[in-house]
Amino acid sequence: MSQRSLTHATLVLERTYKATPKRVFAAWENVEARERWQAPTPDVRLQYIETDFREGGRDLMRCYQANQLVWEGQTHYLDIQPNSRLVFSELVSGDGRHESLTMVGVEFMPVAEGTHLLLTLQITGFDGAAMEAGYQYGWNAALDNLAKELSQ
Predict the structure, then answer these.
(1) Which class is 6-41+79-128+136-151 in CATH?
(2) Could you state, in order of their start, the residue ranges of all structural domains in the chain?
(3) What digits encode the pLDDT tens for the residues 33-88?
């Protein structure tokens, strides 16, 4: 019998954007916008196969790098409070097996400068998959890309 293990990590990322909470939230709600800003680098392409942005809804997404499928993601929306809060789970699979399950909480807080965004990721990696570094890099890049998206 092979050894099976889980890894756990919590990441908290913050940004302040020069846009209203309504505008920042809309960039999460709009699938075309998400495909642009969530890709961490220019050689990564995200493709949403199914989208259902509502409480109880689900998205199916594929991530390609250099036109090769790297992983697939399933998002399940648990709590959506427009312009205020978003909570969802994200299951990432690759090579025919689950790699991680993450609980994601996003808070959109109005501040004088626009919106303070607080992103909390509670990551569980399956079978020793060390996902923390990938999430740290990918989400930091995506949040930086979101600033560019909002400036257009």
Answers:
(1) alpha beta
(2) 6-41+79-128+136-151
(3) 999 999 999 999 999 999 999 999 999 999 999 989 999 999 999 999 999 999 99
